[in-house]
From TrEMBL, chain A:
Name recorded for this polypeptide: ABC transporter ATP-binding protein
The organism's taxonomic lineage, starting at the top: Bacteria, Bacillati, Actinomycetota, Actinomycetes, Kitasatosporales
Entry's family note: Belongs to the ABC transporter superfamily.
PANTHER family according to UniProt: ABC TRANSPORTER, ATP-BINDING PROTEIN (PTHR43335:SF2)
InterPro entries, A to Z: AAA+_ATPase, ABC_transporter-like_ATP-bd, ABC_transporter-like_CS, P-loop_NTPase
SUPFAM superfamilies associated with the record: P-loop containing nucleoside triphosphate hydrolases
Limits of the ABC transporter domain: 5-236
Source organism: Streptomyces cupreus
GO molecular function: ATP binding; ATP hydrolysis activity
Automatic annotation (TrEMBL), chain B:
UniProt key word Cytoplasm: no
Protein name according to UniProt: Zf-HC2 domain-containing protein
InterPro entries reported in the protein's UniProt record: Anti_sigma_zinc_sf
Membrane-traversing stretches: 93-110, 116-134, 155-178, 184-201, 234-259
Keywords: Membrane, Transcription, Transcription regulation, Transmembrane, Transmembrane helix
Signal sequence annotation: none
Length: 286, 271
């Protein structure tokens, strides 16, 4: 499949910290997950690809446009939908007014056309009935959907979503996943998340980042397969396990190199993720 | 019904070319007037598009007082919404500025010298502009930075509006000091110089530190001039001081223009 976003050698340092270290990637239409621990560089990568922060080295293109020039950056932004990690709202705006405000920032100046677009995106995230409500009176899940609606304005070809399911309860999270799946139909969506369930349910590809570098780039099934034969159950904590935790059944689920004769378990995406992170500050025991 | 939408306006409405605030009046009227709806149907080609738009307009929320006022004085509705999102154009900020100016004018009357007013007045537009843009103060900063609208254009729209409000209030306060004649207007050029310098330094020092440095430098200058004054006006409010302020303002505007692209990406304080 032809890539819609491609980057090579992206690097960015803050002081002595390598936020991005020679990152190269290619994205195709559909939802790509970006997994990684705190401080892995996920948000920095998203901000660079969203043209908010310029990389110090390397280059990238979005839908054929190079944001290295002012004009190219403008073209990328016209095709971008961005949902930041903590979307801010003007407290006195209604949902409609807020999305309308973002539509103006996206250069939709014709009032009638803009209002049609605002109604369309609010309907798309199932908020048509509360569009006249002030944002500060909406629940956290609804506010997140207002932010997603704002990102959908203008039917962008590339969407960047930074941990959109954080802080949502399970029902809200399921609902939000449905919306992200819908948004990913025919678009390129890069979804940063801590939740491996998000990736398992939504993504056709997954990237794992740590220390400013990408350590895995493949399908969720391939990430899961990394843990095949390396997950086992034991009655006591296994001292040599890379990670291990007590399950609800009272036994320990261990990830790493199993001892001979160990009772092997079916691996999950999370197991593959933990093994990929091994050596990058991982410490998961309970 | 005491009035009806004119045929010319109905045709413009059907073509989706009728501008606000007449557009809002037409929307409201059409919802209640069968005669005008029938007239609209006659001039509309195709009719469905007009009804769809009417439906959309009736559904859209009415703008707030401030936003509606801006549209009525001729500001484009999309610009009015951008300004409505500017925190320092809200009532609380403007009320604080009015209170400060009234208090200062009162002090000037009792002290018999306009110096305090002249020293304070330039700081208010500087603070207003500084508070209208930046990651710490604009909740939608991150979304605005990656939007196609140029950051510099957004900054200028807000700056002009805040300057108009700030200078207007300062001007009204000046009218309360008629005894000092043109001397009471000696705050204007320093105000422009401080605001332009604060903005020009923002890409380098950030939206909080830059205006703070400029404001601090102004206070230090006034203190030094006060110490050096021998009963006469302070140097910044003399002809030489005013010329210097004009030169600084012009230089800062030039630097600001050169740095315009740097408002298009995150300031490092936001990263």
């Amino acid at each position: 499949m032809t890539s819609t976003v491609s980057a090579s050698g992206l690097s960015l340092h803050y002081g002595g910290t390598r936020a991005l270290d020679d990152v190269s990637l290619r994205l195709t239409p559909g939802v790509t997950g970006l997994l990684g621990p705190n401080g892995a560089g996920k948000t920095t990568l998203l901000r660079v690809l969203a043209t908010a922060v310029p990389a110090q080295r390397g280059r990238f293109t979005v839908l054929g446009h190079d944001p290295g020039s002012t004009r190219g950056r403008q073209e990328v932004r016209r095709r971008l939908g961005y949902l930041p990690q903590t979307p801010g709202f003007h407290p006195d705006f209604t949902a409609f007014e807020f999305v309308d405000y973002v539509a103006i920032l996206k250069e939709i100046n014709n009032r009638a056309a803009r209002h049609r677009e605002v109604r369309r995106v609010l309907d798309e995230v199932d908020l048509g009935d509360v569009r006249g409500k002030r944002v500060k009176k909406l629940s956290g899940g609804m506010r997140q959907r207002v932010a997603l609606a704002a990102a959908l304005v203008g039917d962008p070809g590339f969407m960047v979503l930074d941990e959109p399911t954080v802080g949502l309860d399970p029902e809200q999270r399921m609902r939000f996943r449905e919306l992200i799946a819908r948004a990913g139909e025919g678009r390129t969506v890069l979804l940063s998340t801590h939740q491996t369930e998000d990736v398992a349910m939504l993504c056709h590809r997954v990237l794992v980042m740590a220390g400013g570098r990408i350590h895995f780039d493949g399908t969720p099934a391939e990430l899961t397969a990394r843990a095949a034969g390396r997950v086992w159950s034991s009655a006591e904590r296994a001292p040599d396990a890379k990670a291990g935790w007590r399950t609800g059944a009272g036994t320990f689920r261990n990830v790493g190199d199993p001892p001979p004769g160990a009772e092997l378990l079916d691996p999950t995406l999370e197991d593959g993720y933990l093994l990929t992170l091994d050596g990058h500050g991982l410490a998961v025991t309970a | 019904m005491t009035w009806h939408v004119s045929e010319e306006d109905l045709r413009a409405y059907a073509r989706t070319e009728l501008a606000a605030p007449m557009l809002w009046s037409a929307d409201t009227h059409l919802a209640a007037c069968a005669r005008c709806r029938a007239a609209l149907a006659e001039v509309s080609e195709p009719v469905d598009a007009g009804w769809e738009r009417l439906d959309a307009e009736l559904d859209a929320p009415r703008p707030g007082l401030f936003e509606g006022l801006l549209v009525r004085i001729g500001v484009a509705d999309h610009t009015a919404r951008l300004l409505a999102a500017t925190p320092v154009l809200r009532r609380s900020w403007l009320a604080a500025v009015v209170f400060l100016l009234v208090t200062t004018v009162g002090v000037v009357y009792s002290a018999g010298s306009p110096t305090l007013f002249l020293a304070l007045a330039p700081l208010l537009p500087l603070a207003g502009v500084a508070l209208s843009y930046g990651p710490a103060l604009d909740p939608t900063y991150e979304m605005a930075v990656v939007a196609p609208v140029h950051g510099f254009k957004l900054l200028m729209i807000r700056t002009l509006a805040v300057l108009a409000a700030g200078l207007g209030l300062n001007g009204l306060a000046t009218l309360a000091l008629p005894d000092y004649g043109l001397r009471a207007l000696a705050w204007l050029l320093p105000a422009l110089a401080l605001t332009a310098t604060g903005l020009a330094l923002t890409p380098r020092f950030g939206p909080v530190l830059a205006p703070s440095l400029v404001g601090g430098a102004w206070v230090a200058l006034i203190a030094a001039a006060d110490a050096a004054a021998d009963g006469g006006p302070l140097i910044p409010f003399t002809a030489a001081g005013q010329s210097a302020a004009a030169a600084v303002a012009a230089l800062a505007v030039g630097l600001l223009y050169l740095a315009r692209d740097r408002f298009d990406v995150f300031h490092r304080s936001a990263v």
